[in-house]
């Protein structure tokens, strides 16, 4: 048996990882990783949504309803056939055969209101989809920027670990030369251990955030971009469309109003025009007589059931209009708050970048003085920690500004781009 050195263990782990990756790729045929782009992630997430998968069928349904509203009759005609005979009783030869067709008729104003309702439902289908897309965009944006935050934290933590190891190596060399005490070596090694723990925690957070994003997209892996992902374009005065949520409520109110108008016209069942022909004889040996019958069937009023339908439709219209007023005020407040947050984030970023620049310069000064023996180790480690924290704050401030712009676009009803 050969001894299990660190090199052999790493080699075995690498071979095992490669083997498992090949098995997974061959057996499950997983799709390729998504590019690190917010719009592409949103598009992938939208393709998996129930509203997206049912959109074509909903469009077909409203188009069929529009064709039905444009038809000549509210319902298809019906064929009526009857045969009367005395064969089972006296059997004197009496026969009567009647064949006819019953044609339903539109009530006054019913056809035009049916067409208006079909048009309103067509618009409602599209606005419902746009509102669903915007709701999904909010979820994707939150997951995306959370991943960006955790990824930046992991990058900063790895950088801090590299610096801690570099300092520990320098301390070990100087301890061996007798320039520093063994206690300094312990302190430097403790800083490395703390940095390793911070890296493990940050990478765990980044993995968790990545898995949450993958749950939306269904992808195997997300390709991490180099550096910070590009932020969405800051909206301008021209980027002020009607919010999809308000469009949805407007269309819902329109559908309810058209439904109420149609229900008001449908105060009774549809009348029917009947056209039939009758062929009959009274007994054996008599000639068959031919007759044509034209008739109309007019139902009575629907009464309380009709009143109930009209009242329910009007209640839906009033509810949608009231909700529209509430949401319009809420969205206006969200827009103003989002714009204020962007301005605040921009100010915070400027301050954080100034602090990071000063901290990097200070770290360079103390790093040089430490190597010359003019600065003790605790001071050097403190300066390193301050510089790392300043870099982390600057990186997080850049993410927060990008996230604030994304939230502002969300409040304006704009999809990821």
Automatic annotation (TrEMBL):
Subcellular location: Cell outer membrane
Signal sequence range: 1-29
Record Gene3D superfamilies: Outer membrane efflux proteins (OEP) (1.20.1600.10)
Coiled-coil boundaries: 328-400
Example GO molecular function: efflux transmembrane transporter activity
Keywords associated with the record: Cell outer membrane, Coiled coil, Membrane, Signal, Transmembrane, Transmembrane beta strand, Transport
Listed GO CC annotations: cell outer membrane; efflux pump complex
Source species, domain of life: Bacteria
A Pfam family: OEP
First-listed, main subcellular location of the protein, grouped into a coarse class: membrane
SUPFAM superfamilies membership: Outer membrane efflux proteins (OEP) (SSF56954)
Family affiliation: Belongs to the outer membrane factor (OMF) (TC 1.B.17) family.
Protein name as annotated: Cobalt-zinc-cadmium efflux system outer membrane protein
Protein species of origin: Melaminivora alkalimesophila
């Amino acid at each position: 048996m050969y001894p299990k050195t660190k090199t052999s263990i790493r080699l075995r782990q690498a071979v095992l990882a490669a083997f498992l990756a090949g098995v997974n790729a061959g057996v499950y045929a997983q799709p390729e990783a998504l590019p690190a782009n917010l719009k592409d992630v949103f598009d992938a997430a939208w393709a998996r949504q129930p509203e997206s998968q049912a959109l074509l069928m909903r469009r077909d349904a409203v188009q069929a309803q529009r064709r039905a509203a444009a038809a000549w009759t509210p319902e298809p005609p019906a064929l009526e056939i009857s045969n009367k005979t005395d064969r089972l009783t006296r059997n004197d030869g009496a026969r009567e055969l009647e064949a006819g067709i019953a044609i339903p008729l539109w009530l006054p104003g019913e056809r035009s209101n049916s067409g208006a309702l079909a048009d309103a439902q067509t618009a409602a289908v599209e606005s419902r989809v746009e509102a669903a897309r915007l709701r999904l965009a909010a979820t994707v944006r939150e997951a995306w920027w959370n991943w960006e935050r955790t990824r930046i934290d992991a990058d900063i933590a790895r950088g801090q670990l590299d610096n801690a190891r570099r300092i520990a190596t320098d301390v070990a060399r100087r301890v061996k030369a007798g320039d520093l005490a063994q206690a300094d070596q312990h302190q430097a090694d403790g800083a490395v251990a703390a940095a390793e723990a911070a890296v493990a925690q940050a990478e765990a957070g980044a993995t968790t955030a990545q898995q949450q994003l993958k749950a939306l997209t269904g992808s195997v892996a997300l390709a991490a971009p180099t550096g910070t992902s590009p932020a969405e374009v800051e909206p301008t005065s021209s980027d002020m469309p009607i919010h999809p949520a308000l469009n949805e409520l407007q269309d819902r109110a329109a559908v309810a109003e058209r439904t109420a108008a149609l229900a008001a016209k449908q105060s009774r069942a549809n009348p029917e025009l009947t056209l039939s022909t009758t062929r009959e004889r009274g007994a054996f040996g008599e000639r068959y007589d031919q007759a044509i019958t034209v008739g109309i069937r007019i139902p009575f009023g629907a009464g309380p059931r009709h009143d109930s339908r009209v009242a329910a439709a009007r209640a839906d219209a009033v509810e949608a209009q009231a909700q529209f007023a509430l949401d319009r005020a809420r969205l206006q407040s969200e827009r103003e708050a989002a714009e204020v947050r962007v301005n605040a984030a921009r100010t915070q970023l400027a301050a954080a970048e100034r602090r990071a620049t000063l901290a990097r310069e200070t770290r360079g000064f103390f790093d040089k003085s430490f190597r010359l023996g003019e600065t003790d180790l605790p001071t050097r480690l403190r300066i390193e920690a301050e510089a790392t924290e300043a870099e982390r704050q600057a990186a997080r401030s850049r993410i927060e500004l990008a996230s604030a712009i994304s939230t502002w676009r969300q409040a304006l009803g704009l999809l990821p781009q």
